[in-house]
Each structure stands twice: as C-alpha cells, then as structure tokens.
Amino acid sequence: MEMSSLTFTKLSVGPMDNNAYLLRCTTTGEGLLIDAANDAERLLQLINSSSNGISTVVTTHRHQDHWMALEDVVAETGAASLAHAADAAEIPVVTGTLADGDTFSLGDCDLTVIHLVGHTPGSIALYHDGHLWTGDALFPGGVGNTWGDKANFESLINDVSTKIFDRFPDETEFHPGHGKDSTLGAERPSLPEWRARGW
Predict the structure, then answer these.
(1) For the packed helices 40-48 and 70-77, what is the interaxial angle rounded to 10 degrees?
(2) Which of 37, 117, 160, 167 is deepest in the core (most CB within 10 A)?
(3) DSSP string, 33-99
C-alpha cells in the first residue's frame, strides 16, 4: 500500500498467521520491519527485494509468535531492534527501547509510538499519516486478549479508547498483528459493546 511518503507491504507468516509489515520511505528508501514474527527466509526475501534493506525492526510486544524470526533478521540485516521498555526483557534482541509518545524517523517519515497496556505491559502501536499498526492491542471486532483479567482488560479498553479512538478520525486505517485490516470508523460504534462484554 502507498501513502504520499511511505509504502508498506503486509506478509502473513508462521502457523499463527502473524502479520509482518515492511514499511519504506518513498524518498530515501529506508526500511523498517514491524514484527519479525516467523519465517525468517520469507521475511528476508521481502526485505532484500529492495537494495536498501532495513535499518530497524520494531517488535509490538513480548509474545513469542511476534519475534520468532527476530534474531535471524537482525543478524542478517544489522538492523536496530526496538521495543517498549516494559516488554524488552522478554524479547531476545533489543538494542533500544521506546516509550509512549516517542517519535522516530524512517527516512523522511515520522512514526509515533502509542503505548497500549493490557495485552502485555509493553504493547505498542505505531502511527503514520492515517495508518496505525496495532500489534495485538486492537483488531476488527475488539481489543486484544486479556485472558479474563479484568484489570488488564480495563487498562486496554481505556488506552485504546483514549489514545486511539478519541485521537484519530474515522478514516484512519489500522493494521493488526493477525488477520484483516479495518478502519476506526467501522469499529467505533462497537466500543460500548466491547466494554460491556469485558473482552
């Protein structure tokens, strides 16, 4: 998919159909991978389809299905590996940490970090120009799994409501860690139902 300043490619990998996303600045060609989830060989083929490779891998959260290929991808590409500080200790290769509100550059593009606590302590989404990459914090049809933990669910639904739905307009597209994409407008009417059902 192409925006004015950024292109991205979505690739489903591994037995849990994890989505990995390759983002590339259209001006400089600099690349970033969101979630080196699995299938290192396929991810590296995608990365190496451009001579520019990648400079960074961002892991959206600590769950193993989102970083199974991380060590191989970092070793092959020399990319920096970033994750939220609260999840970094359980991710095998992290060279730098991220926090809520951080902005970092991908070539001429700025990506903003949004910390969404509940699925894990350090789950993050990334935002750029009308697009959100939400990991396992937000899906079409609901927030991420909190395994019946009421406190974690309250934290996640509150963070998703205030930091995403209250902040961004309906036309904002989001791209989750598994499955299909959606828009905030398509999901917004269901927020009260999600909160009432508790998952």
Answers:
(1) 30
(2) 37
(3) EE---S-HHHHHHHHHTSTT--SEEE--SS-GGGTTTHHHHHHHH--EEEEEHHHHTTSS--SEEE-
